[in-house]
Amino acid sequence: MGQRYNRSPSIGINVRTFQNIDPEPLKINVYDGAALEPAWTAPKGLEFPENDESLQTFQGSCHCGKVSFALRSKPIEELEATECNCALCLKTADLWLYPHKNNVIVQGREHLTLYSRYYDGKNEKAGQGFCSTCGVCVINVLGSYPGGGLTDIQPVNARAINGIDIKSLKVKKANGKGWGEPYALDKK
After folding, report:
1. Cis peptide before 38 (omega within 30 of 0)
2. CA 130, CA 136: separation in Å to the nearest integer?
3. Are 130 and 115 in contact (CB under 8 A)?
4. How far apart, in whole angstroms, are the C-alpha atoms of residue 133 and residue 82?
5. 123 contacts: CB under 8 Å, gap ≥ 6
6. Which residues have CB under 8 Å from 147's CB, separation 6+?
7. Least confident residue range of 87-91, 135-139, 158-162
8. Residue 168 vs residue 18, higher pLDDT
């Protein structure tokens, strides 16, 4: 086991925070932060009121546990995640799953800060929901989304699902750079 707080004079910088840097071709040095002590403990899971034996239930949350969700879906290996290259998704490395809203339970929405986007001149907000305490992006809120037709969807960040192997997901790329106006903080 490693130590969580190494006192060496090194510093890590998230390369995704630099403008106009495409992280795709960069060599990745794998760092197993999960092996460090003290181990992180996932919050208690949520339960769906009705059981669907054909689907699995996955638990997800922000880091501090104030926002959590349950996702009911086919096995993770059969899901397709979307990696968007808009300015925000690129910086935060989000991987989006787009399940039907009936297959997602979200607890702690009152702890979300919505970093929102406006599309097509309409005042319907769409954006990413970040935990107001720890900053983890957990869900996406869809309003007037490009192309429409997504009102029955509740996107979740696959990276917020507890204990899954992200490498087991099929990932498709989405060109979000050209969608709508820049993001702005939604002051509720």
Report:
1. yes
2. 5
3. yes
4. 26
5. none
6. none
7. 87-91
8. 168
Of 117, 135, 137, the closest CA to residue 126 belongs to: 117
Amino acid at 135: G
Phi and psi of 148, rounded to 5°? 60, -170
| Closest by CA position to 105, among listed 66, 69, 72 | 69
Model's pTM, two decimal places? Answer: 0.77
End-to-end CA distance of the chain: 43
DSSP state of 40: P
In one-letter notation, the amino acid at residue 160 is: A
Contacts of 15 (CB under 8 A, 6+ apart): 21, 23, 26
- Contact between residue 160 and residue 81 where contact means Cβ atoms under 8 Å apart: no
- Which own/partner contact pairs does 4-9 have at CB distance under 8 Å and 24+ positions apart? 4/36, 4/37, 4/38
User: Encoding tokens for residue 168?
Assistant: 């087991």
> 110-119, 129-138, 154-163 — which is least confidently predicted?
110-119
User: 174-177: long-range contacts at Cβ-Cβ below 8 A with a sequence spacing of 24 or more?
Assistant: 174/82, 174/83, 174/84, 174/85, 175/85, 176/84, 176/85, 176/86, 176/89, 177/85, 177/86, 177/87
